[in-house]
Amino acid sequence: MALDAVSYRDEYQRSISDPEGFWLEAATAVDWAVAPRQAHNGEQPPHGRWFADGELNTCYNALDRHIAAGRGDLPALIHDSAMTGTQRVYTYAELTDQVARFAGVLRAQGVGKGDRVLIYMPMIPEAAIAMLATARLGAIHSVVFGGFAASELAVRIQDAAPTVVVTTSGGLEPHRLVEYLPTVHEALGKAGVPELPVVIKHRDGFAADPAALGLNAVDWESALAAAEPAAPVPVKASDPLYILYTSGTTGAPKGVVRDNGGHAVALLWTMKNHYNIAPGDVWWTASDVGWVVGHSYIVYGPLLAGATTLMYEGKPVGTPDAGAFWRVIEQHKVKALFTAPTALRAIRKMDPEAELLKKYHVGSLETLFTAGERLDSDTYHWAGKVLGVPVVDHWWQTETGWPIVGNPRGLEPLPLKAGSPTVPMPGFDLRIVDGMGVDVAVGEEGNIVLGLPLPPGTLPTLWNDDQRFIDSYLSAFEGFYVTGDSGYQDEDGYVFVMGRTDDVINVAGHRLSTGAIEQVIGTHPAVAECAVIGIADVLKGQKAVGYVVLKSGVSLSPEDLQKELVALVRREIGPVADFKSAVVVEALPKTRSGKILRKTMRQIADGVDYVVPSTIEDSSVIDALMPVLRPS
Ligand code: COA
Ligand code: AMP
Questions:
Q1: How many C-alpha atoms does 112 have within 13 Å on its Cβ side?
Q2: For residue 223, is pLDDT > 50?
Q3: Which of 59, 109, 278, 458 is deepest in the core (most CB within 10 A)?
Q4: Does ligand 2 have an atom closer than 6 angstroms to the CB of 497?
Q5: Cβ atoms within 10 A of the Cβ of 581, count?
Q6: Ligand 1 pocket: which of 342, 369, 398 to mutate (most atoms <8 Å of CB)?
């Protein structure tokens, strides 16, 4: 099949041959305080910037300008909590009022342009309000996912050095209340800033008392009642809007920086051209504000576009059942849903014939988008069959902030192929190269790299660490950004993303570092060394498994050791690591230079073809591991 996608192809070609013209035109969708005259400043990373001479306020573009356009009474945000059974709708006028007043609260705490605000919140409207209020002041937010433990929160507090923390009493997980305040207290202590002001949105049902913990607490409600609303503060397009920490290959998370101008331009382009969403449409991203998907497509993208964003507190299954998503689509007339394949697999597992779907009218749904992990063809076919709508995979990462490869439903819907997120989006000069950086043949797997400069909205650098930015992404192949994923392109230019080439794994659509888990396991007194690998899992895509060599003379039973290691990882990284298996082994396979052969171990565990590197120190170690890696 040949691509006869004229307008996609034209747009894509124009973005590569004339990026200045392409992106300056896209930039007209933004309301600028000072319109940019130049798209890219022509500098090399880490100094390359988009729209460097432009000024804007992202919050103004997401809220106020829709009121100015007469859409103040349209719903901006619908909060639907399957956990509490409550729903709340904010119009653009109401949300703007809340955000302006909360910006006043932050300002009263000393937050100004360029200061950082750390937000540790579950899926409640106040999380979005805090993000937008920070942006309104020209300050920089850093949202931390609620499934991370105190140590992870502390690392982020230390690195971002916020002026204030915004949090709530807790989050609601099925069968469990997650108390946030003790975690915040512990994290502030670990980060050495126990006195930092903490704005707390009170939620009923949680036990922890901020005063008893000794937190420098500010009550959200009373501060809001007393606050002076703040007006949007224009910032340079290249000023940071947020820092979002993501897992790298080592224990230390990477602080991905997002700018204001490129971000607004790119997200507006995607809402129209990729997702086909216009003002007034109801758009639902079932993710979490703690992830990039939540930043781009729960908060900023839909609001910049003047659409209605649905924020869902709940799970795809068990809250109360596998019909939860269908209920939400019917009730709020959702036009498009964006979720992770693992959520669909969870629904399918509970309700393979989609019997629960019969209870609901989901006719408003036009498209189902998935990302966060590879969409396997079983799930693709199942979802397409039961819902009767196109199921559109698209591939991207925290670093890029928007789809690298997708299917531009608004510009020109391209034929779908199972297993492929379709084609590169404008601005992404995608190549597949071998280990030497040479283009591979059509159909051959290699490293997926992107030509520089990356398009607007992608990371200009890592927070406080230009060198790590260069070392991690730009030094392997001159002139290219390394995505860390491998894949191939077919004869039609369709991209197939096969998996990571590094030690990043993806569990239930959550990005984790095996290095970080190894670092925690290594602190256990019985452990001599360990390797953590992500092995294939039918529900969650991958699961982390630890292979542990004990110190000599240790008498702990394997069962007790596993229990202790599981508890340790949960305490140090958080429940999101979902670490459940630790296996004791005699030795780990290594190269002669001492590098553990994690990739070979993973390939054996996954039952795929593997080649044991000739540099292996002792091949009998692999033979001994076989029954452990692939138990019959
Ligand atoms: N706060 C605190 N704990 C959290 C949490 C949060 N925000 N999110 C998850 N957890 C906990 C879970 O409660 C669970 O704890 P447990 O070990 O006590 O049961 C643990 O972390 C692992 O969570 P998860 O891997 O999500 O498993 P699950 O069994 O709770 O749910 C799915 C499985 C598939 C339903 C769920 O993972 C899901 O909806 N995934 C979609 C992921 C997604 O949207 N990703 C965003 C990228 S697009
Ligand atoms: P994150 O930064 O958390 O969004 O995770 C990004 C990583 O998730 C990518 O580098 C991929 O490894 C994986 N990923 C995300 N979306 C997809 C997809 N549609 N297909 C395959 N892998 C994906």
A1: 1
A2: yes
A3: 59
A4: yes
A5: 14
A6: 342
